[in-house]
């Protein structure tokens, strides 16, 4: 790290002493954020460690209605590592593995997941709520019978961030994995995960299917130094919607444009987190999917579950 980078990191550490709880300090190689009682906004990803302005934290609900709920600002030490699709069996991923001679149950299956909604400029831009949409998942073999070229697919499993891909044809998909844009077999890629079509998860207007495929195919073979997405979801969503906000550093930060992520936790209400870019919001939501958020929220909320 350069001398200037060390100085900035030292200044960051001195700024993150907010009372007795302080911050959950993490390495830049980890995805866990530090959650500050006074509420912090997302830093500039290009600078990697940025000083925060707490006065910019909004205090109003984007809908204009105030609710009695916890609101937390989130700050990161960034990592450019893409999550790994590891070798797991269906049982490892939370699904029953068929016994010898038993026909595979192709679903649909229900999974226990954290639910979300997200807003920008008072408009809903993302929704994952069971009362509004079908959140069932299917085996990959069953899922392949439903897919069309250009579809956005999500592979899910317990205690891991979902892996997003663009469906091409037959069982071939295009995705970001381990710092490379690749074309792979969905059957081989799934490694026990089940999946679903998530074309409508984001509320942006999608591109025509041929342009979606053009975006995806045109980037196959690119590796880390040429890639401007930090996870599989951002790349796949960019292919489908074409919005530069899905790219790392593709969004100009402004006090007027904030992103509000509402985390719907069973039994503990709705918690609102505030971000300065779409990419930062995606990072945190994927971290929640991978490791949960209850511990961090309980710390910020004085230890109450």
Automatic annotation (TrEMBL):
GO terms for biological process: cell morphogenesis; cell motility. Coiled coil: none annotated. Residues 87-98 have a biased composition (Basic and acidic residues). Residues 153-248 form the LRAT domain. Residues 81-106 are annotated as: Disordered. This is LRAT domain-containing protein. It comes from Knipowitschia caucasica (Caucasian dwarf goby).
